[in-house]
């Protein structure tokens, strides 16, 4: 399964993988532009507004009905941040044509519907309807406020914000988004929408139809599209370590959430990128990792304690849900395990388990259209030419010494802790009645 | 192969087939061939959190502490020689896990290499229990943190609030993980009692899905199953059959850290057939009825959404098993009581008008497409096969039933279910000081 690329028109590029392996197929349409705090905020509202109706299907219910007619096709509209880039992506999961019982042209119908959503949204006096914008603002506000419902996710968001401190950051904070979302106006949103349409359109398809069939459908559906801006993005350098900062927030919850932020200095495309992936795996990304085996299994201090690595920022973060009284002992153990790696104490068994686990995670990509799309999309965005196989081989060539070297450069400079104020209390649901 | 009796199942509608091999011990082995890069295997038992009272093989009637099925699932990975099977799976490059639900427990792994080593490990650790007072003690801290984590999850608490509102004594109303108090009563002896009572060949299934050589695997399974793995099915003391059709309470509320109220509405169903095929048919009929009544493509959802009575996140579903059944709706709303009023009004309206025929056709098409899409993932297939085994159903039958359902069938099911229903509303609301 190799990725092929063709230009459908001057401003629409198609990346595709031809395969009959799946019963469902994936087609996505992405527009990307440099990000600002404001543009991300606008994109959140825009995603909801686009879903609310088109000139041909003037309500959300009619769009949903149309998609159900197309064998329960699902269309997801999302904005996301990749380093300094904002991406607006409309992706559709559709049933493969061979399962159409009545000959309905599923891919053609979905492509037309997506084109309609992106190019002909419902308007009122040449702009998005004020009522729709107003209600989507309210939904975005609710959704942002609801981040505190999930303390694990909230802690991770707060850590990310804190790690960007002092930078000329375009990474918008939750506080910024919440306090500014109500200032969005229909006309500003309309201008933003039109500015996004100036970018070149990237189409990604994985499924059984031929490239010429896809090209013809997309060309026909998007004949009015004229975005010309060619954005060439580069991954920014990893941010430098900062003076240590620790922030604690009290919350009326049972479990404390400890998140620790470290900087590897290695981003995608850099020499140390592969070593950072292996380091993360050994440290805390699998059940054979040092954090799992020691913080959870040996000391019984938590249910989860894991690490994750962001290849676009170079940040490595550790997250654990713990009894608040154990904060110091958990922190010390996590750092002690990191120290073990810095000192070169990774056994052959640990190293081999990490390699095998990573090798398997890359093989897994071939079994999921979504994983294939995300692997290639991010590389395409930043002009990195690498196949899944090449990436896997690069990671498997990392040596223990590469990992030790990178671990020694790792800087732990940020901590965020949710102090559960119900911790230690006899909580209502945790006890026998 | 001599020790297995084979039966093949095929679905022309789904273009899939699999074979059930019944081993001389009574164990069912399901092999589902699928041309994928990864293989998924699962060894599971029809035993979950609701099975708390039973007669042991030596004739002792016992009631065990809440959460013990889940506790056993954690502890089974520990081996007599002090090793942990999680680590062994890592050595083979496999990704292992386990889960416990109300009525089943499963141990699983996925891999792309060394399948036979991992499968051997799966069989070995599941058929060789080893519990000691020390190992039980060391697990309490880990599971206590897991319980705390779920205690802080508003969606989880709201769901259990619905079950507590619906059921008076059925053990489904109690947390799958148990409570801090109940797990502290678990001993190595009670774990052995549970293991010996439920982990028996004819109460278990081994499922393998992927691009595999069936004969080779069956030979391995035959060799690795120990002679001690024998005995017939357990006798459950079923306190769960005697639930009144009425809910225990119509409203329950608890306050937690949430930005706005979330709700779960539960319609209790005690009309549960002893015939698994009838249960499966009811499951399919209710899926279609729900799709007609509450879909995002329907007028009811649109109306609530446009009037800002509910937030975009809204879900619905019907659950049926041998001893419990309910229909549920969940979402986020400023006034959950108003949502329930609207739902009741909607049901009354449809009682007058009958189900919409166009919506029926749409719903059938959606259910057909969802059934097909399930067969794109080795994980989904293996878990669906195991669920079907636990419910004494055949995997392909659901899609076949869906295709044969008529409008009249759906209308009749709607009328029967909502003729004299009993509903409960569970709310998690923001903390007020």
Question: Could you characterize what this model shows?
Answer:
The complex is a heterodimer of chains A (433) and B (433). Chain A starts with a strand and ends in a 13-residue tail after the last strand. Chain A is built from 15 helices and 11 strands. A 6-stranded mixed β-sheet of chain A has the order 1-2-6-3-5-4, sandwiched between helices. Chain A has a 5-stranded mixed β-sheet with strand order 7-11-8-10-9, sandwiched between helices. Chain A folds into 2 domains: 4-221, Metalloenzyme, LuxS/M16 peptidase-like (Cytochrome Bc1 Complex, Chain A, domain 1, 2-Layer Sandwich), CATH 3.30.830.10; 245-420, Metalloenzyme, LuxS/M16 peptidase-like (Cytochrome Bc1 Complex, Chain A, domain 1, 2-Layer Sandwich). Chain A has 433 residues and is α+β, with helices and mostly antiparallel strands. In chain A, helix 1 (37-50) packs across helix 4. The longest helix of chain A is centred in the last third of the chain and has 18 residues, at 348-365. By secondary structure, chain B is α+β, with helices and mostly antiparallel strands. In chain B, 42% of the residues lie in helices and 21% in strands. Chain B contains 15 helices and 15 strands. Chain B has a 7-stranded mixed β-sheet with strand order 1-2-3-9-4-8-7, sandwiched between helices. Chain B has a 5-stranded mixed β-sheet with strand order 11-15-12-14-13, sandwiched between helices. A 3-stranded antiparallel β-sheet of chain B has the order 6-5-10, with no helix packed on it. In chain B, strand 1 (4-11) and strand 2 form a beta hairpin. Chain B is globular and about 65 Å long.
């Amino acid at each position: 399964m190799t990725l092929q690329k063709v230009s459908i028109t001057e401003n629409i590029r198609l990346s595709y993988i031809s395969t009959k392996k799946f019963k469902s197929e994936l087609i996505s349409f992405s527009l990307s532009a440099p990000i600002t705090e404001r543009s991300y905020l606008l994109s959140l509202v825009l995603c909801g507004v686009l879903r609310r109706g088109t000139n041909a299907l003037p309500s959300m219910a009619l769009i949903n009905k149309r998609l159900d007619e197309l064998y329960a096709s699902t269309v997801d509209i999302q904005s996301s941040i990749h380093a300094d880039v904002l991406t607006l992506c409309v992706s559709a999961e559709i049933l493969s044509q061979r399962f159409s019982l009545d000959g309905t042209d599923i891919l053609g119908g979905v492509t037309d519907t997506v084109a309609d959503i992106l190019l002909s949204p419902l308007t009122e006096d040449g702009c998005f309807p004020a009522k729709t914008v107003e209600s989507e603002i309210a939904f975005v506000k609710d959704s942002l406020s609801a981040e505190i419902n999930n303390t694990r996710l909230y802690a991770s968001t707060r850590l990310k914000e804190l790690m960007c401190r002092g930078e000329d950051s375009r990474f918008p904070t939750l506080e910024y988004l919440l306090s500014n979302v109500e200032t969005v106006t229909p006309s500003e949103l309309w201008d933003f929408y039109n500015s996004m349409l100036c970018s070149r359109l990237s189409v990604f398809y994985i499924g059984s139809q031929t490239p010429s069939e896809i090209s013809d459908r997309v060309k026909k559906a998007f004949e009015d599209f004229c975005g010309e801006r060619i954005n060439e993005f580069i991954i920014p350098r990893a941010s430098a370590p900062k003076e240590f900062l620790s922030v604690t927030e009290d919350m009326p919850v049972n479990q404390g959430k400890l998140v620790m932020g470290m900087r590897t200095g290695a981003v995608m495309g850099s020499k140390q990128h592969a070593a950072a992936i292996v380091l993360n795996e050994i440290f805390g990304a699998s059940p054979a990792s040092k954090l799992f085996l020691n913080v959870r299994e040996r000391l019984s201090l938590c249910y989860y304690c894991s690490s994750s690595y962001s290849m676009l920022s170079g940040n490595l973060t550790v997250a654990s849900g713990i009894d608040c009284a154990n904060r110091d002992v958990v922190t010390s153990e996590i750092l002690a395990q990191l120290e073990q790696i810095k000192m070169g104490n990774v056994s052959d068994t640990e190293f081999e388990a990490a390699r095998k686990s990573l090798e398997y995670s890359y093989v897994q990509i071939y079994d999921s259209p979504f994983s294939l799309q995300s692997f290639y999309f991010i590389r395409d965005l930043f002009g990195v030419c690498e196949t899944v196989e090449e990436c896997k081989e690069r990671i498997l060539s990392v040596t223990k010494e590469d990992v030790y070297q990178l671990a020694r450069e790792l800087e732990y400079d940020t901590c965020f802790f949710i102090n559960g104020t119900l911790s230690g209390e006899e909580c209502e649901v945790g006890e026998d009645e | 192969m001599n020790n297995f009796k084979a039966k093949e199942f095929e679905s022309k509608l789904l273009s899939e087939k699999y074979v059930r091999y019944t081993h001389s011990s009574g164990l069912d082995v399901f092999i589902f061939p699928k041309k994928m890069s990864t293989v998924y295997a699962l060894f599971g038992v029809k035993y979950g959190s609701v099975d708390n009272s039973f007669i042991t093989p030596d004739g002792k009637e016992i009631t065990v502490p809440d959460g013990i099925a889940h506790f056993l699932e954690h502890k089974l990975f520990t081996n007599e020689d002090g090793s942990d099977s999680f680590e062994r799976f890592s050595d083979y490059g496999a990704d292992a896990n386990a889960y416990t639900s109300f009525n089943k427990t499963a141990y699983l792994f996925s891999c792309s290499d060394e399948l036979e080593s991992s499968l051997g490990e799966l069989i070995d650790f599941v058929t060789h229990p080893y519990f000691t007072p020390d190992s039980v003690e060391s697990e309490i801290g880990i599971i206590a943190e897991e319980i705390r984590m779920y205690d802080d999850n508003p969606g989880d608490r709201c769901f259990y609030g619905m079950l507590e509102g619906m059921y008076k004594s059925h053990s489904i109303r109690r947390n799958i993980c148990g409570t801090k108090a109940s797990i502290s009563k678990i001993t190595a002896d009670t774990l052995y009692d549970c293991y010996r009572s439920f982990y028996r060949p004819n109460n278990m299934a081994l499922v393998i899905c992927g691009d595999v050589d069936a004969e080779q695997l069956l030979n391995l399974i035959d060799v690795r199953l120990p002679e001690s793995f024998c005995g017939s099915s357990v006798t459950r003391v079923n306190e769960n059959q005697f639930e009144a059709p009425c809910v225990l309470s119509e409203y329950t509320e608890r306050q937690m850290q949430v930005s706005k109220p979330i709700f779960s509405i539960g319609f209790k169903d005690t009309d549960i057939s002893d015939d698994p095929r009838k249960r499966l048919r009811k499951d399919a009929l209710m899926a279609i009825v729900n799709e007609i009544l509450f879909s995002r493509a329907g007028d009811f959802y649109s109306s609530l959404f446009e009037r800002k009575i509910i937030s975009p996140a809204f879900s619905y579903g019907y659950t049926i098993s041998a001893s419990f059944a309910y229909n549920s709706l969940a979402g986020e709303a400023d006034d959950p009581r108003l949502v329930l009023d609207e739902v009741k009004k909607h049901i009354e309206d449809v009682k007058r008008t009958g189900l919409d025929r166009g919506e029926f056709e749409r719903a059938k098409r959606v259910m057909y497409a969802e059934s097909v899409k399930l067969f794109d993932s080795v994980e989904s297939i293996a878990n669906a096969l195991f669920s079907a085994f636990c419910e004494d159903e055949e995997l392909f039958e659901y899609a076949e039933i869906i295709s044969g359902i008529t409008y009249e069938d759906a209308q009749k099911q709607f009328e029967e279910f909502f003729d004299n229903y009993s509903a409960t509303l569970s709310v998690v609301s923001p903390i007020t000081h």
